[in-house]
Write a structure and sequence with these properties.
The complex is a heterodimer of chains A (816) and B (190).
Chain A lengths: L1 H4 L37 H10 L9 H14 L4 H17 L4 H12 L4 H20 L2 H13 L10 H17 L5 H19 L5 H16 L25 H14 L18 H9 L44 H16 L4 H9 L17 H4 L11 H13 L9 H14 L1 H18 L5 H17 L20 H16 L2 H5 L12 H4 L15 H12 L4 H17 L4 H16 L4 H21 L1 H14 L4 H13 L5 H15 L8 H25 L8 H27 L3 H6 L7 H39 L18
Chain B lengths: L16 H9 L29 E5 L7 H8 L5 E8 L6 E9 L2 H10 L4 E2 L2 E2 L1 E5 L34 H14 L12
Antiparallel strand pairs in B: 1-3, 1-6, 2-3, 4-5
The chains are: A mainly alpha (816), B alpha+beta (190).
Chain lengths: 816, 190
């Protein structure tokens, strides 16, 4: 623990692995007992330090800080290293810590009054860099450079950044006219709209007309709902429920800015560190009369690229909507989008240091105009005491909301989900009293909405919730959901509770988790869950084939050769036929269960046992479909109380090709779901099993497709086509199985129907079927669009015709 | 200049463990003042053994943390290729560390960034990039079989067998000198 408490402070601090261990420290070199020797660091070191931590100290007035850095810089103008470093650092900070951009711009503006040359050299470097970013399709960096330029609008000649924005717009129009499914054009319009407000506060009252012209043009693109939007809606309203469709980020932004334009671009939330108090009128007038600089022309490449990340339309998501008191800005104000945008960039850029990301989030109020937020850590209940013109926006809520919007972004956020978990964990560690209550309210909101949340997202919620609790002693006020324990297992709330408790146990152990739960929940943790090793069913003589099961286990334990096992297997076959059972299924069940029993001590043990028996298992699977399915059935049955272990074993069996994806999917969605009359569809671990399997298949296809596009890698087109075909048929099989559940046409449902097929249970099962279906239709569509893009990229250089892309998901539902 | 140094430290850098080890193995070779021109040819920059590392050393685990728990947490950064639990050299029981191997370098880096320094089994765990597991490294290198850090540790750590084993042993000896009857009360291992 101590290792982590010695974090280095300061602007760039927060690393934990780079301090040498104490015992290597050489005390002769560094005597800490004497009075500390004073020395002044050279100016470039001081400037670096001050720029890195700019605006971080809320007690220091911005104009003072800006002025002192600018003065330190211009006073040391003769230092060439300093001049180069200064430009580099400003540009680097602008794309690494974009919350600080307006403050950096202010430093540059003040320096411009004294040494105008600095702006020219900054612009030259910036434009060269910007052109590069445009060429690579690095649209976030493009946006961040434009934000810096926008803040410098007042020291630019002519129309400043407007020509660049106009050029971006004409590109967007071209792209959108070429394809209605284009996402780059939308991205470009988003950049324009997010740059505009900074221009308007940097150079107030000059550009209203220009802005109005531009916004009139962006309107059509911004307000057009994107073709893919329906797929990535976070909510999946139940039939009959009002389908309040979510708002796209860009549509919101357009209308928010329109409102701003109508009120003269007040934009009260944006900081204006270039405005000096009246006592500094002289400085202010020097700023006004400082020299202006020409922005070098920015060259755009002929074709623009989507860049390294696939672009998807974005939807505004908040865990604090419609509260009695507004603790986050409402979607009507531009502050929502501007603050969210800056926070999202901060979060996603700083993935390599979650501690700093969390700190910047907690300090969000430092980087926006004073009085944008209520005081930090104001309890939600006290917000209603705040009187009218004062803000009720809780900085913690705004910060946490931004992280949740990523965690709940479809199809995927930029980084692995666990990154966003870790940011929330760190934020909670840094300021527990402020953050924890906000998380609590977020959890309650999400829980209330679990029934209508997209199923992929409710699964992410289970995963985050249990992981988060595991970092904080598993403490949660379970009592408030106690009534829901008595709901049927098919209810989404009950499913959430059981799923979350299971995941908690997987990160800890049953007894520990039981102790954190109120009495009513304890029956959910069955005695089997408290056993580390499951019972071996063949230990009980009443189980068919008990003797054979024990015998095989004993043979496996002493690593007997296969010849000794074969006779026992044959005995099972004979017995099974006598009892009218499928012999292959019977022997496979006995054998697989014995392997699991022998390997029950740990995953390493079972993997070693599988490794030794993989030939027999593979042969068993190849012998018949029923036997193949029995392999997974045996795993899921043996480890039914510890589904995490079962899922890991299935993953490894897939790697060995002992199991294949279609068998896993079929077992889950047809046999097991059928045997439980659909209740399996409500089980978090069944979803996890299927989802992981599908991700394995799609991951493999992506890898193969990417490899075939590299000429030097030996993956032939046949392999690719075969894998793509297998993936499509997997998605089709899922579509068939799930739409049968969703429509209630599944045999087991019809058999079970008591009356008109509209009992609560049947409705719930149909609803689960619908939720599953939506998730995997989306996955199928995403993979198809990936294949389409890959084919497009391949076409121009190789010349061979890309395979026609057939839609994987039949639009019509097979009701058979 | 740019790109060398980020404005924020990275959490996916390896610790000083391997670079220190390398230095200790080549003692004082480059420390000749002022005569760089004589036959000291600049060494070709050694290939960084961690450049493509897919393995992580994981430390500060509880002795009671299971493989399954490690799987559960570490799979959040990618599929695990292999997991090797650190064992006491003599008892072959877990002694508080493990090696996690991923399929890709990126997964290992992500694990450094997102999991190192967070809790597993309610302990803050430490992750470090590792050039790869080799047979023999699964055993503790402390005198009594566990990890070296558990020999002389003065704080009582319930998850790691109480106070350091060497200290426990010393106390047992002292106690035996005082009169052996109460011996069993002290420093008993769980």
């Amino acid at each position: 623990m101590a290792d982590y408490d010695r974090r280095q402070g300061g602007g760039g601090g927060g690393g934990y692995n780079n301090s040498k261990k104490r015992r290597y420290r050489d005390d002769d070199d560094y005597d800490r007992r004497g009075p500390r020797r004073r020395f002044d660091a050279p100016p470039h070191v001081r400037i670096r330090k001050q720029l890195l931590s700019i605006a971080e100290n809320p007690m220091r007035p911005w104009h003072e800080e800006v002025q002192s850095i600018a003065t330190l810089f211009t006073d040391n103008w003769s230092d060439e290293l300093l001049r180069v470093n200064f430009v580099e650092l400003i540009l680097q900070l602008a794309i690494e810590q974009p919350l600080k951009t307006p403050f950096l711009a202010a430093v540059v503006l003040v320096a411009n009054t004294n040494k105008p040359e600095i702006v020219d050299s900054l612009l030259t470097t910036l434009v060269a860099d910007l052109e590069n970013k445009i060429k690579q399709g690095d649209w976030r960096d493009v946006k961040l450079y434009l934000k810096l330029l926008a803040c410098l609008q007042n020291c630019l000649e002519g129309e400043g950044v407007f020509p660049v924005l106009d050029e971006l717009f004409s590109r967007a129009v071209d792209l959108q006219t070429a394809s209605s499914e284009d996402t780059i054009g939308t991205e470009l319009v988003k950049i324009i709209l997010l740059t505009l407000p900074y221009v308007m506060v940097a150079a107030p009252d000059q550009w209203q007309q220009k802005a109005a012209d531009l916004m009139e043009k962006t309107e059509i693109i911004a307000s057009e709902p994107h073709a893919l939007q329906a797929l990535i809606e976070p909510y999946h309203p139940e039939s009959g429920e009002d389908a309040s469709s979510s708002m796209s980020m860009i549509g919101l932004l357009q209308s928010q800015l329109q409102t701003e334009a109508n009120s003269g671009w007040a934009l009260p939330c944006l900081p204006r560190p270039w405005d000096f108090p009246s006592s500094e009128a002289e400085q202010q007038s020097r700023l006004a009369t400082a020299p202006k600089h020409a922005l070098p022309t920015i060259a755009f490449p002929k074709t623009v690229l989507a860049g390294p990340r696939p672009l998807f339309p974005e939807i505004y998501f908040s865990v604090y909507p419609n509260q009695e008191v507004e603790s986050v800005p409402s979607t009507a104000t531009a502050a929502t989008s501007l603050i969210r945008d800056a926070l999202l960039d901060t979060i996603n850029i700083l993935h390599y240091n979650r501690n700093v990301a969390a700190r910047l989030l907690i300090e969000v109020d430092c980087y926006f105009a004073p009085r944008t937020f209520a005081a930090r850590a104001t309890p939600f209940d006290r917000l209603r005491d705040i009187e009218a013109p004062k803000s009720t926006w809780k900085p913690e809520d705004v910060a946490v909301d931004a992280v949740f919007s990523q965690l709940f972004q479809l199809p995927n956020p930029e980084h692995k989900l666990v990154y966003y978990h870790s940011v929330l964990t760190e934020a909670c560690k840094l300021a527990p009293a402020a953050i924890a209550p906000s998380l609590g309210r977020a959890i309650r909101y999400l829980y209330r909405n679990v029934p209508r949340l997209d199923m992929e997202l409710s699964s992410r919620f289970v995963d985050w919730f249990s992981h988060h609790l595991s970092n904080f002693g598993f403490t949660w006020k379970w009592t408030e959901w106690v009534d829901d324990v008595y709901l049927p297992d098919l209810h989404p709330w009950k499913a959430f509770i059981t799923g979350a408790i299971d995941k908690e146990i997987r990160l800890s152990f049953a007894q520990r988790i039981k102790n954190t739960l109120p009495e009513a929940y304890k029956p959910l943790i069955t005695p089997d869950k408290e056993k580390e090793v499951p019972d071996f069913k063949f230990a009980d003589d009443r189980t068919p084939f008990a003797a054979e099961g024990r015998e095989i286990a004993a043979l496996l334990k002493r690593k007997a050769p296969d010849e000794e096992i074969q006779p026992v297997i044959e005995r099972i076959h004979v017995l099974a036929i006598d009892n009218n059972l499928d012999p292959l299924v019977a022997s496979t069940d006995v054998f697989m269960t014995a392997v699991l029993h022998v390997g029950s001590k740990s995953l390493s043990h079972v993997l070693a046992a599988i490794e030794r028996t993989k030939d027999r298992l593979t042969d068993a699977g190849a012998a018949s479909d029923a036997a193949h399915a029995q392999i997974i059935a045996a795993v899921m049955a043996y480890w039914s109380s510890h589904p995490g272990v079962a899922i890991s074993i299935v993953e490894k069996l897939l790697n060995y090709s002992i199991l294949v994806p279609s068998v896993v999917i079929n077992w889950a969605l047809v046999s097991h779901a059928g045997a439980t009359r659909g209740e399996a569809l409500a089980k978090a671990h069944i979803y996890e099993l299927v989802f992981n399997t599908v991700m394995k298949v799609t991951g493999r296809v992506r890898q193969v497709v990417q490899k075939t596009s590299q000429p030097d890698v030996m993956v032939d087109d046949e392999t690719r086509d075969r894998d793509v075909k297998a993936m499509r048929s997997l998605f089709r099989a899922m579509e068939d199985a799930l739409s049968a559940w969703a429509s209630g046409s599944k045999d087991e449902m019809i058999e079970a129907a008591d009356g008109d097929g509209n009992s609560d249970t049947e409705k719930l099962v149909r609803r689960w079927g619908g939720r599953w279906l939506r998730v995997f239709r989306r996955r199928a569509a995403i993979e198809e669009s990936f294949l389409l893009e890959a084919a497009k990229e391949k076409k121009p250089d190789s010349g061979d015709s890309a395979p026609a892309v057939a839609p994987a998901v039949a639009a019509e539902v097979d009701m058979a | 200049m740019r790109g060398d140094r980020s404005t924020v430290d990275r959490l996916d850098k390896p610790s000083a463990y391997f670079s220190n080890r390398k230095q200790r193995r080549r003692p004082e070779r480059d420390h000749r003042d002022g005569d760089e021109d004589t036959n000291t040819q600049p060494e070709p920059p050694a290939e960084d053994p961690l450049k493509d590392a897919t393995t992580l050393y994981v430390g500060n685990l509880s002795f009671y943390t299971t493989e399954e728990q490690v799987y559960e947490l570490f799979s959040k950064c990618g599929e695990i290729k292999r997991l090797v639990m650190g064992l006491d050299r003599f008892n072959k029981t877990p002694c508080g560390f493990c090696f996690v191997e991923y399929y890709t370098h990126q997964d290992a880096l992500d694990c450094m960034k997102y999991i190192g320094g967070t809790k597993l089994d309610e302990r803050i765990i430490r992750t470090d990039l590792d050039p790869g597991f080799e047979e023999g490294r699964q055993y503790g290198r402390g005198k009594s079989g566990g990890q070296v850090r558990d020999e002389y540790r003065e704080d009582y750590d319930e998850g790691r067998g109480g106070i350091g084993r060497a200290i426990q042993q010393a106390e047992r000896l002292k106690d035996a000198e005082r009169g052996g009857d109460r011996q069993a009360e002290y420093g008993r291992l769980r």
